[in-house]
Design goal:
The chain has 811 residues and is α+β, with helices and mostly antiparallel strands. Among the domains are: 4-309, Distorted Sandwich (Beta-galactosidase, Chain A, domain 5), CATH 2.70.98; 356-467; 735-810, Maltose phosphorylase, domain 3, CATH 2.60.420. Helix content is 27%, strand content 27%. The chain is built from 19 helices and 46 strands. The strands form 13 sheets. The chain has a 10-stranded antiparallel β-sheet, covered by helices on one side. Strands 6, 7, 8, 13, 17 and 18 form a 6-stranded antiparallel β-sheet that branches. A 6-stranded mixed β-sheet has the order 22-41-42-46-43-44. Helix 9 packs antiparallel against helix 10 (416-431), helix 10 packs parallel to helix 12 and helix 12 (512-531) runs antiparallel to helix 13. 56% of the residues are buried. Keywords: Glycosyltransferase, Transferase. Residues 307-734 form the Glycosyl hydrolase 94 catalytic domain. It holds the Pfam family Glyco_hydro_94. InterPro entries: 6-hairpin_glycosidase_sf (IPR008928), 6hp_glycosidase-like_sf (IPR012341), Gal_mutarotase_sf_dom (IPR011013), GH65_N (IPR037018), GH94_catalytic (IPR033432), GH94_Enzymes (IPR052047), GH94N_CBP (IPR037825), Glyco_hydrolase_94_b-supersand (IPR010383). This is Glycosyl transferase.
């Protein structure tokens, strides 16, 4: 069942019913100011940091669902309605929401009045712009009243929802003309404020929530709206809001545009006060001048669309597969941009309060983003590295505003250091910029402890070398990629509380997954060393890699698949010897990507085992059989019901690992099958089952052991975005940047007769045509570059060219 459709020409998803299974959201903003916007106008806004600089309130999991946002109420006689349906939920004569790239448009009609709300965050300005076009489509004059409404957050989102004894005495506002200034805590330690303004004279305002809603009132029927008369309330303490009243009169066929601006304003150091406890209005007025006419707002939207069109032009594909083209050219890359900006911090499933930016998460997000804006990727890598410790380990998360490590989460996830090598290698392959290795970069953000960035990579690599367990496999620490696989916990008796081992006792749990990572990204580390002229270091790294490969085959192979791990007591995890959890997805993916045992058939056998034991119609589950009871020695993974999250859920993040692994063994049909089973465009028709947005990936889908098999959760902010784009662009389509040039190595379904692609790479545009006359799944029979045949499938980089024509024949 569908609740809308794709519009590829306008790069939009058009939602035609407000009653989607869950709120279907969009992200507005791609620099410092962000707004999350649902298909019914719910959501919230913040500047840089969703925890510390939250502009508007949002109540997660509220009943009714998604009932706080930036709303416009239209009171037409006794009828009150919203262009986006919520929160009045008045039945509309027509409804449509169009989520585009960085903007959303809400179209509602009721009783002859049409309202079109165009919502976006412009480039270069810390605000959200709402252009509301009201049209009288009836044959009679229409007199009605418009009320805007937004509820301000008191900046620190966690404190806002917990410290009521203080916060209910701090709310402060100022009203100047049509602009409401939310200045709570401006007098204290902050030198910023929020504004909510409209480009016309107003007929009233409200800034006190209780006055606007009424005693025991609610968003669905605010007292002010129902009576049709603003109270001109001025918030003092309690909860500040922003609301404008505008009386509208339209002749038949007449339209009127209004431009509202919700903005964040920060004074310069020498511009704090305008008067005693009064905000300095000059920077706000300068901001509002940019959008004080319809023409200026329209131009800002046009500039935003041009920006996105430019970004997405760096990689495009044209094939006989419409859904493939749609995802590669639009939605894959759009989601990669959003996850780069947000990491896992702010969504409808992430509150923006706890997680911040992830060390591992942000490194992986780079893999799908680096080709879009390499300079920002470079800075992100340096920010991430600055949270690293001197021994090569790292804070698992950091806050985006302060760029300081999150001490509450701490460290001990032993895969983290290797992801820094992965992200850096992706950046260097894309750009050829080795100068990043010379950047002086601190440890734990302490400038007195700083080395060149190359040393950070060295310590990342050696952290694994120096932390090996009894079998010679990498120690897992608190966990590896699977945060819920906690193998260094134990209890003496069943049911007793568990404890962790101290340094003198271990911990000894080992990860075969990290071993696969070490081999894969260790090769990149060795290549970087060699490019730096560090030949002996490269050779020593390769010795460690070869040793690890053999260790995996000796101690990490279970006969038909790779083991997952060993716990502290050297018991196998992810083995046919186990009662439950016999086979896990992660080591099958990464050990094959690392080509461990490829020539001897191990990799193919592992892929066959995945297909036999882990496959389902909605994707590949993380493990089988699911855990049916709690295992203290395995940790949080067994706390979930079977089929959910890490306990045999379909973790979309590592499904592309299997698809990539299938390209390693040359099975294009199977790689394609794995890709399409979780790809949004290919599962749009089951939206009533899937429930989350049909245009972006979710973190997980309920597995076959769950009652709600096929239901997705945790949409938008997931490493799935980067990995699926990496999978389809670099391994299925096979257009892959490397240190010395661009590789073209497709692995496609036999039914695909070829494709063409445009790829910008280091300032050169490559026009690539791939032909597959004989239905091959993998293999390059011939390749010509500008009409000249070349050996192999690498296009050597030549920066003197601006355009390059490439033709590849598979076979």
């Amino acid at each position: 069942m569908k609740f809308g459709h794709f519009d590829d020409v306008n790069k939009e998803y058009v939602i035609t019913s407000p009653r989607t299974p869950l709120p279907w959201i969009n992200y507005l903003g791609c620099e410092d100011f962000f707004s999350l916007k649902s298909n019914t106008c719910g959501g919230y806004s913040f500047y840089k940091d969703a925890k510390l600089l939250r502009l508007t309130r949002y109540r997660y999991n509220n009943v009714p669902l998604d009932s706080n946002g930036l709303y416009y109420f239209i009171k037409d006689g006794d009828t009150v309605w919203n262009p986006g349906w919520m929160p009045t939920k008045t039945e509309l004569d027509d409804y449509k929401c169009r989520h585009g790239l960085g903007y959303s448009v809400f179209e509602g009609k009721k009783n002859g009045i049409s309202a079109v709300l165009t919502d976006f965050v412009p480039m270069g300005t810390a605000c959200e712009v709402n252009k509301l076009t009201l049209t009288n489509e009836s044959d009679e004059k229409k007199d009605f009243t418009l009320f805007s409404y937004v509820e301000f957050c008191l900046w620190n989102a966690m404190d806002d929802m917990t410290n009521f004894q203080r916060n209910f005495s701090t709310g402060e506002v100022e009203i100047h003309g049509s602009t409401i200034y939310h200045k709570t805590e401006y007098r204290e330690r902050r030198n910023h404020y929020a504004i909510f303004s409209v480009n016309t004279d107003i007929d009233g305002f409200d800034t006190d929530r209780d006055s606007f809603l009424g005693a025991y009132g609610e968003n669905r029927a605010p007292e002010v709206v129902m009576t049709g008369k603003a109270k001109n309330s001025v918030a003092s303490g309690w909860a500040p809001v922003g609301s404008h009243q505008i009386n509208i009169s339209l002749a038949p066929g007449e339209s009127r545009d209004l431009v509202f601006v919700l903005g964040y304003v920060e004074n310069k150091k020498d511009e704090k006060w305008e008067g005693l406890n009064k905000v300095n209005r000059k920077p706000a007025e300068a901001m509002l001048t940019k959008f004080d006419t319809t023409e200026k707002a329209d131009q800002a939207l046009a500039d935003l669309k041009a920006y996105w069109n430019g970004l997405l032009s760096h990689f495009t594909v044209s094939s006989s597969e419409e859904k493939l083209d749609r995802m590669v050219n639009i939605w894959h890359q759009y989601q990669c941009m959003v996850t780069f900006n947000m990491s896992r911090s702010a969504s409808y499933f992430e509150s923006g309060i706890g997680r911040g930016m992830g060390f591992r998460d942000s490194c992986q997000d780079l893999l799908g983003f680096v080709h879009l804006i390499p300079d920002r990727a470079r800075q992100r890598i340096l920010d991430i590295a600055s949270t690293q410790f001197e021994d090569g380990s790292a804070y698992h998360q950091y806050q985006p505003l302060t760029k300081k490590g999150n001490a509450d989460i701490g460290s001990g996830f032993n895969d983290d250091p290797l992801w820094l090598i992965a992200g850096t290698a992706a950046y260097i392959k894309e750009t050829g910029d080795y100068s990043i290795l010379d950047e002086i970069t601190p440890y734990d953000n302490d400038a007195s402890k700083a080395t060149d960035f190359m040393e950070h990579l060295r310590r990342s690599f050696n952290y694994t070398v120096n932390h090996l367990g009894p079998h010679g496999l990498p120690l897992i620490g608190r966990a590896d990629w699977n945060d819920c696989l906690n193998l260094n916990c134990f209890s003496e008796e069943p049911g007793e509380s568990f404890q962790t081992f101290g340094p003198s006792e271990g911990p000894n749990a080992e990860s075969v997954f990290i071993a696969g990572m070490f081999v894969k990204y260790g090769k990149d580390y060795a290549a970087i060393c060699r490019h730096r002229g560090l030949e002996e270091e490269a050779k020593e790294a390769e010795k460690q890699i070869e040793k690890m490969e053999q260790t995996v085959l000796d101690a990490g192979w279970d006969g038909e698949w790779y083991l997952r791990a060993y716990d502290h007591y050297k018991h196998k995890v992810g083995s046919k010897e186990c009662e439950e959890g016999k086979i896990f997805i992660e080591p099958q993916g990464f050990c094959v990507i690392a080509e461990i045992g490829l020539k001897d058939g191990y990799c193919l056998k592992a892929m066959e085992s995945v297909e036999k034991h882990l496959d389902t119609k909605y994707g590949i589950v993380l493990l089988q059989p699911c855990y049916t009871r709690y295992h203290v020695e395995l940790g949080e993974i067994t706390s979930y019901p079977g089929g959910y999250k890490e306990n045999a859920g379909i973790f979309c993040h590592n499904n592309p690992w299997i698809s990539i692994a299938e390209t390693v063994v040359g099975r294009g049909n199977r790689a394609w099958q794995v890709y399409t089973r979780t790809c949004p465009a290919y599962i749009e028709d089951i939206s009533e089952i899937h429930r989350t947005e049909p245009y972006v990936y979710s973190q997980m889908i309920a597995g076959k052991d769950a009652p709600n098999f096929g239901e997705a959760k945790n949409s938008w902010l997931t490493g799935t975005a980067a990995w699926t784009f990496l999978d389809v662009s670099q391994y299925i389509l096979g257009i892959r940047p490397d240190y010395d040039g661009l590789v073209v190595d497709p692995c496609i379904p036999a039914s695909l007769d070829g494709f063409s692609a445009k790829r910008d790479f280091r300032g050169v545009t490559y026009h690539i045509t791939v032909k597959n006359p004989n239905g091959a799944e993998k293999g390059v029979a011939s390749m010509t570059v500008d009409g000249t045949p070349v050996e192999g499938n690498m296009i050597p980089f030549d920066g003197s060219k601006k355009e390059v024509q490439v033709e590849v024949v598979m076979g």
